[in-house]
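subagent[fold] <- orchestrator: predict structure for attached chain, return tokens only, no commentary.
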Amino acid sequence: MHSPYAPLPVTEAHRDRVVRLLAAAFANDLLSVEQLDARLAAAYRVRTPAELQQLLVDPADPSRSLEDWQRCFTAEGVVPERGAAVAVAGGFGVKGGWLVPRQLKVWAVAGGGELDLREARFAPGMTEIEVVAFMGGVELVLPEGVRLEVVGAAFLGGFEYKAGAAVEDPAAPLVRLSGVAIMGGVDITRGRREHKNERQYLAALARATEIQRGG
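subagent[fold] -> orchestrator:
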């Protein structure tokens, strides 16, 4: 049994998360090659969550974490309470670093819309998104770092959700997504944030695999 006085053990999921954050930081020029290699090696060596978290300190500003710029949530008071995205015999498209209202209504009637929320920020706690597609379609892309609850129905249409990786962090924002598709379609997926240099990101993950294997 784990002693209540001993530090919690580091799981492989914890290590994998930090490795991906380090790879993303390298892909966005926040770490040099030397800094990346040193931190990746340490990620497979440290034994406590505190030591693992220390690897995410921003070398350019020790008061900040490399995780800060990748977070998908923001302060409580800056997020609007309500908002809407509507397409009637037309279309809409939303992407980039916008603030998602706590209650967001999305309607597509004889039209279509795309909401790419990978760069968006959510309020702490719960965000409710209601999607209605009537003879139209809505594509919704959520970031990897949010928890998600989906309750949807379809009549002569489709309401599809591709789960992706589960988020177990209880402090992560919760998105409760509900709605209906009538002779239309709703497609919900997860996606990670874009990187400044995708090749560097993949190279960093490959380097992490080599280090883990002792190469």
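orchestrator: received. Logging for downstream: The chain has a mean pLDDT of 85. The chain is about 20% helix and 35% strand.
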